[in-house]
Specification:
The chain has helices at 2-5, 9-28, 35-51, 54-64, 72-79, 83-92, 98-107, 110-118, 124-133, 136-143, 152-161, 169-174, 180-187, 192-202, 206-221, 225-251, 258-265, 269-280, 284-291, 296-305, 313-323, 331-339, 347-360. The chain is an all-alpha fold. The protein has three domains: 1-109; 121-222, no CATH class; 233-360, no CATH class. The protein is globular. 32% of the residues are buried.
């Protein structure tokens, strides 16, 4: 009662911890929770958690993520909390049902939706809801979830969507539910390294598959010279539209470093190149040279020069590699080298180092 009357954060946390301990002890003894007691627990937890500080909610989420006795209303509220608090709940809580997850897809942020797509053993109804929403970053997270219940039809939709969302191709090529028929479709879209992996995994005839690639290329380029000029014009129009978008965002003060991760999650590599160049006052060709190299530290210097945090860079690098055929190379050793770009120096120094280094790449 003394803890309950206290307004101190530490006392509130001790009270919450004590109640959780009691509930876990009861579960360990196999004691069923009486409905009246469950209703009381719901009321207590909702009152205390809503008023709790962020760090307390964070620690509470880690404990309650594995608690099957946890009140459903509380778990659903915590799943809508900021992503660092919601992440363990979304990933592990057995209290969250399929309809809860589908509702979260509608109500929550993009980061929450990505965590739902990564949830282990995701059921078919949630998979279909993710595919219906057609958010590129969430689809890519789903394609990387090898335990999700992705039906043959759903896998076919993902392979078909990978024609536009380049980031889908690499995880789909490795997915255990990819069939030989879908592998042959995906083969026409991927680069040489993934083609080799698909040939080895499904014992595809390389001669026949390369002939199919050649036929697809001919079909794509078939048409009159006028049609070909129109296609080139469309590419130029798209590039001009993207350049105009970056300029408008910058003029409105809305072009910020966080935008880079957003466009990468959407599979828009060229927009990433333009945005990074604009933010760092670089040439787009310099950024392109950096991401096509075998030195991820070049990209790290460019990111460091605009204030991107060291902890965010590995995610950026992973997305760029997925969208750019595995480049910039360097593997895990390259990731370690790239960390040195976020050393104890100012963004201006990082920018100068990038310009000098990229000229020698």
């Amino acid at each position: 009662m003394k803890l309950a009357r206290s307004r101190e954060a530490g006392d509130r946390e001790r009270l919450l911890t004590g109640i959780i301990d009691l509930c876990e002890e009861g579960q360990a003894r196999g004691e069923p929770t009486h409905p009246d007691v469950q209703a009381l627990l719901n009321s207590i937890f909702m009152t205390l958690v809503v008023e709790a500080e962020r760090e307390i909610r964070h620690r509470l989420a880690e404990r309650l993520a594995d608690a099957e006795w946890a009140p459903s209303a509380l778990i659903n509220i915590m799943a809508l909390d900021e992503i660092e608090i919601a992440r363990p709940i979304i990933a592990r809580s057995a209290v969250l049902q399929d309809h809860d997850l589908i509702r979260l897809l509608v109500q929550a942020t993009l980061e929450h939706q990505i965590e739902i797509a990564r949830r282990p053993r995701l059921r078919a109804s949630v998979v279909e809801a993710i595919i219906d929403r057609d958010e590129p970053a969430v689809l890519t997270a789903l394609a990387s979830n090898e335990t999700a219940d992705i039906s043959t039809d759903a896998m076919g939709k993902l392979v078909d969507r990978s024609r536009e969302v380049v980031a889908l191709r690499s995880p789909l090529a490795r997915h255990p539910r990819l069939s030989e028929q879908l592998a042959e479709q995906l083969y026409l879209l991927v680069g040489r390294a993934l083609q080799d992996a698909l040939e080895a995994r499904f014992h595809l005839d390389p001669v026949r598959m390369q002939a199919a690639v050649a036929d697809a290329a001919k079909a794509a380029h078939h048409g009159t010279a006028e049609g070909q000029v129109a296609a080139v014009g469309m590419d130029e129009d798209r590039e001009e539209m993207e350049r105009s978008l970056i300029e408008k965002l910058d003029s409105a003060g809305q072009l910020r470093p966080g935008y880079l991760l957003r466009v990468l999650r959407e599979g828009r590599l060229q927009l990433f190149v333009m945005a990074l160049a604009r933010l760092g006052k670089f040439e787009s060709a310099q950024i392109r040279r950096a991401i096509d190299s075998g030195r991820p530290e070049l990209l790290a210097l460019a990111c460091s020069s605009i204030g991107i945090d060291r902890s965010v860079f590995p995610t950026i690098l992973e997305h760029v590699r997925q969208l750019n055929g595995g480049r910039p190379g360097g593997g895990e050793e390259g990731v370690r080298r790239a960390a040195s770009a976020f050393g104890p120096f100012t963004p201006d120094i990082a920018g100068m180092a990038f310009r000098q280094a990229v000229g020698q790449a």
